[in-house]
Amino acid sequence: MATLSTGGKVVGAKPHKALLSRLKRLSRSLSRKVKGSANRHKAKQKLAKLHARIANIRQNSLHQLTTDLIRRFHTIGIEDLNVSGMVKNRHLSRAISDMGFFEFRRQLEYKAGMRGAVVVVADRFFASSKTCSAPGCGHKPKVKPAPMKQEFNRKLDLG
């Protein structure tokens, strides 16, 4: 979920992933009940309770993480991620949705305002992964042409 300037990494809680098998089982159970029956009502209550539990676990872990970060660091830098675009990737969408990135940013910003900390938001088009992370360096390597493109150009020149 987060990488700290001290070198530590924070792994976010994944409540949806942890409780997914129970969620699937209760959803299947609900779908098999007769509409309007008392058993369907009980199954619906169980499913709603599990959804609330997942939301509470996510909310609690985000509150603990943001409070810890605000207490330890005065300046916090985060990236403005294209979450709606990342969710369109069917292989990553569940994991990305499980993290709650917007809520993480929202909590950081309001807690930073309360404690006098600063949250710096890097633009989503800023080349943060290509820029050198050494203090004061900021070197960005020149873009090398792809090897396949060179091979293709060489074949065109020969023929």
Give a brief description.
The chain has 159 residues and is mainly α. It has helices at residues 15-18, 20-31, 38-72, 83-87, 93-99, 101-115, 147-158, and strands at 2-3, 9-10, 75-79, 118-122.
Largest sheet: 2 strands, antiparallel
Poorly predicted runs are: none
The value of Rg in angstroms is 23 Å
Structure classification: mainly alpha
SSE sequence, one letter per element: EEHHHEHHHEH
Shape designation: elongated
For the largest sheet, list the strands in their spatial order. Answer: 1-2
Helix content: 55-70%
Q: Please give the number of β-strands.
A: 4
**N- to C-terminal distance:** 51 Å
Structure, explained:
It contains seven helices and four strands. A two-stranded antiparallel sheet has the order 1-2. Strands 3-4 form a two-stranded parallel ribbon. Helix 2 (20-31) packs antiparallel against helix 3 (38-72) and helix 3 packs across helix 6. It is mainly alpha-helical and 159 residues long. A hairpin with a 5-residue loop joins strand 1 (2-3) and strand 2 (9-10). The protein has helices at residues 15-18, 20-31, 38-72, 83-87, 93-99, 101-115, 147-158, and strands spanning 2-3, 9-10, 75-79, 118-122.
